[in-house]
Amino acid sequence: MPAAPRDGTGAAAAGPGTAAPPILSVVIPVRNEAPNIAPLVAEIEAALGALPHEIVYVDDGSSDGTADALRAARAAGAPVRVLRHASSCGQSAAIVTGVKAARGRWIATLDGDGQNDPADIPRLFARAEAEAAAGRRTLVAGHRVSRKDSGVKRVTSRIANAVRAWALRDATPDTGCGLKVFPRDLFLDFPHFDHMHRYLPALTLRAGGHVVSEPVNHRPRVRGASNYGTLDRLLVGIFDLVGVAWLQRRGRRPAVEEDAGP
């Protein structure tokens, strides 16, 4: 069997469904999510239809059958590209890897556990394009109005969002939602650090961009197991919050003009 073609990043090139250059790159970080790959890819394809797109999976050191499931999705003709971390580096590192490798001008991020609904992507993308037409670089964040998580997770997230909103003024009711759409070049302006994916709205504001939220569907996890616990996220989040608040206060955005005179 011939080897899959490679692109400049060393990742597998997009499948036959992306003859046109992608406009939108769907970046999905995953670790040990083998049973969720095929259903999620099918939903993304149904949602995006004829829009030129690619699906960039970043396998963050999975130890189950995730790699095989991704190969199967690509072999079936979906426009899937696969990048792999040799060992787990975390969700933020996986998103950075995916966005850097993406070929679309626009990025949609999506959790790989099936709880985000790909059917919401076109609406968030349309809002992002409208913002761009108005001259704004905007991150469109999903807002899980009716969450399908455990009671403990809902309560802790509500508290975390309230504290974060107070400390960072990030104008976002649900920063933890994995479904977001934004210009690729906006993300590349951000400082990259562990757990940064939880602070994309604050980093957008720091970079001079805008943030808007859109209500999105949220579904219970029906396959696989979560990679996160409640206590570990809480402890790490305290230190992250202090660090991002420091970044906000230390950031400077110079107004640049080119001197065209003699």
Structural overview:
- InterPro entries: Glyco_trans_2-like, Glycosyltransferase_2, Nucleotide-diphossugar_trans.
- Its EC number is 2.4.1.83.
- The protein contains 8 helices and 7 strands.
- The protein is α/β, with parallel strands linked by helices.
- A 7-stranded mixed sheet has the order 3-2-1-4-6-5-7, with helices on both faces.
- The termini are far apart.
- The N terminus is likely disordered.
Give the arrangement of secondary structure elements:
Blueprint: E1 24-30, H1 34-48, E2 53-60, H2 66-75, E3 80-85, H3 91-101, E4 106-109, H4 121-133, E5 138-144, H5 151-168, E6 180-183, H6 184-188, H7 200-206, E7 210-216, H8 230-250
Parallel strand pairs: 1-2, 1-4, 2-3, 5-7
Antiparallel strand pairs: 4-6, 5-6
GO molecular function, one term: dolichyl-phosphate beta-D-mannosyltransferase activity
Protein name: Dolichol-phosphate mannosyltransferase
Domain Glycosyltransferase 2-like: 25-150
